[in-house]
Amino acid sequence: MPRGRPRQFDRDKALQDAMLVFWRNGYHAASMPDLCGAMGIDVKSLYAAFGNKEKLFEEAVGLYMKATQNALWAHLAKGDPVCVGLKNMFASLTEIMTDSANHPVGCWTTLALVDEDMPSLVVRAIRKARSDWLDVIGACLDAAKETGELPASADVRSLTRFYVATVQGIGIQAHDGATKAELDGLAATAMSVWPDEMAAA
After folding, report:
1. Which residues, given as ranges, of the chain have pLDDT below 70?
2. What phi, psi does 23 have (nearest 5°)?
3. CA-CA distance, 81 to 84, in Å (whole number)?
4. Is 26 left (phi over 0), alpha (psi -120 to 50) or beta?
5. pLDDT tens figures, 92-140
6. pTM
7. What fold does the segment set 54-200 form as a domain?
């Protein structure tokens, strides 16, 4: 007799469904019945496949950030000038953040609350997702400075935090009901501080 039955569900789809529950409800309010119902599995199967709620959340954040990399950060790795990559990234960002047909609006990792009652694994996952934005944009701006796209006098650290704050602001304002057109205007204003853009104005 076999020692165990093979899984009878699509793990990737179940993780996607769990991510949407966490995104809509937050970590604390996402109950096990909510998660199991959305994922189409029972509690035993959830624990067997993912370990526990904290580890499920960590995997869900990883899935979200992989989608972020594919949909947004990819614009920064195409070999275009960094300024062009940022513009294209913001154009995709405003579209994704306002796409209410496929997921909650806004940026999940920006909107996710971090409090002292959360498991440390959950807090680390959220904070890492946010710091990854600093790392990715910072690396691009460092490269732009090295190639001369940004002047030697450019304050890359401050510019990095400014653009990450813009990303986070777009996520928050999308959640609060801002339209894509309004967010596109915000992104255009943010790009106007790029030194070459200022010089051309």
Report:
1. 1-7, 196-201
2. -65, -45
3. 5
4. left
5. 999 999 999 999 999 999 999 888 789 999 999 999 999 999 999 999 9
6. 0.89
7. Tetracycline Repressor; domain 2 (1.10.357)
Q: What is the 3-state secondary structure (H, E, C) of 92-133?
A: HHHHHHCCCCCCCCCCHHHHCCCCCCCCHHHHHHHHHHHHHH
Looking at residue 36, what is its pLDDT?
Answer: 98
**The tokens 């104005």 sit on which residue?**
201
Q: Which two tokens stand for residue 17?
A: 């469904």
Describe the chain by its helix, strand, coil percentages, rounded to 5: 70, 0, 30
Q: Token pair of 176, please?
A: 């609060």
Exposure letters 169-181 (e unless 16+ CB within 10 A, then b): bbbebbbeebeee
Contact 117, 28 (CB under 8 A): yes
Place of tokens 């450019």: 154
Taking the C-alpha atoms of residue 197 and residue 191, their distance in angstroms, rounded to an integer, is 7
Q: Which amino acid is at 188?
A: A
